[in-house]
Amino acid sequence: MKEHLRAEERQREIDARQGSLRQLLAAYVKALRDAGKPSADQVEGIFRRNILEPFKVVADANASEIEPGDIQRILARLVKQGVKRQVNVTRSYLRAAFAYGAKADHDPRTVAEDGVLFGLKYNPASTVPRIKEFEQIGDRTLTDDELRALWRGLEKQPLVQRQSLRFNLAIACQRPQQLLRADWTAFDFDAGTLLLKDTKGRGGSRDHLLPLTTFALEQLKPLRELNKDAPTPFTSDGKRATVLTTLSVAVREVSDVLKKSHKVPRFQQRDLRRTVETMLQKLGVEREVRAHLLSHGRTRGVQGQHYERYDFLDEKRRALRKWGAHLERIIEGKPQSKVAAIRAA
User: Fold this and answer.
1) pLDDT per position as a tens digit, 48-89
2) So what's the pLDDT on residue 307?
């Protein structure tokens, strides 16, 4: 009898402080931000575009009332739009948000602070399967003509998106999330370097130092002029850094235009990094230098993790100069002359 009464009392408390799906997603994003996770802005954007705006009724429902069918509807909309990778990404973040909500209900601080309770009995996102074929490793690389068309097509994009993408191309397509996290303190214009933080993989964050070539600085110049008083060059509002999805959308929009106008096979932002490495290989840049330039990670084992600290800066600089000369030739639509080839080398 006492156990029954305690259960009823607990349920009344949950009902009085019942949190909606909207509140659950906001709480999860806040937890990511409080933990210093760089993905917080990206997750917030995904929730807003894929759930909060198109499914307002579902978002305002109690989180405990969300069923697998609701998750299916959310993901089906993305499938219909052809945004394949976003399907599994959105599912993963939803699953993580519900897992967070289940733990938060049992956190003594939540009760003490009179915070919302979600009363989750299970995780509705976990019962919806991942779509494996949407996770296939891509093999799309752009040709010289396609890369030139992309560069020129970016001209119609807003300045921040255009120059952020062009700058990243000039520095051999670093991981966009790492680049967008860089504020002005990451740039040493006297030394001509950019220090990125690579948080990919295990072992915590590690430094990824890049030289800034003349060509790269030319692409950065409009951002320096626009956002000289902002904390980061990669911002449209002067406060917060642009999120990864914003750049992805810009690339997709250019791709859609080229598909319609010139029947160019569609490409995505992640295809650009693969394209650059393929071209670097053709330019004769050694595999080890490419690995350090693109931050593929150090050699595993004690030696690689603790003792190999050479930053390959000189090799990276030579590779980026060679790449910059090659990219300029592509943009201008000129064949590579013997003199240009010697200068690139």
Assistant:
1) 999 999 999 999 999 999 999 999 999 999 999 988 878 999
2) 41
The DSSP 8-state label assigned to residue 210 in this structure reads E
Query: Which residue's structure tokens are 């705006």?
Result: 53
In SS3 terms, 244-255 reads as: HHHHHHHHHHHH
Walk me through the domains of the chain, giving residue ranges and CATH numbers: 2-135 (1.10.150.130), 144-344 (1.10.443.10)
* b/e sequence 293-313, b meaning 16+ C-beta within 10 Å: bbbeebeeeeeeeeeeeeeee
Tokens encoding 160: 């921040």
Q: Is residue 87 within 8 Å of residue 51, measured between CB atoms?
A: no
The pLDDT, as a whole number, for residue 64 is 93
Greatest pairwise CA separation for the chain in angstroms? 91
Question: Which pLDDT tens digit goes with each residue over 41-58?
Answer: 889 999 999 999 999 999
In b/e form, how buried is each residue of 87-108, taking b as 16+ CB within 10 angstroms?
bbbbbebbbbbbebbbebbeee
How much of the chain is in helix, strand and coil states, percent to nearest 5?
A: 60, 5, 30
- Quote the CA–CA distance of 77 and 211 in Å, as a whole number: 43
- Number of Cβ within a 10 Å radius of residue 145: 12
Local structure of 117: helix, strand or coil: strand
Other Cβ atoms closer than 10 A to 37: 14
Q: What is the DSSP string of 141-207?
A: ---HHHHHHHHHHGGGS-HHHHHHHHHHHHTT---HHHHHH--GGGEETTTTEEEEEE--SSS--EE
What is the rounded CA–CA span in Å between residue 211 and residue 172? 11
Q: Which two tokens stand for residue 335?
A: 């064949």
Lowest mean pLDDT among 33-42, 162-171, 264-273: 33-42
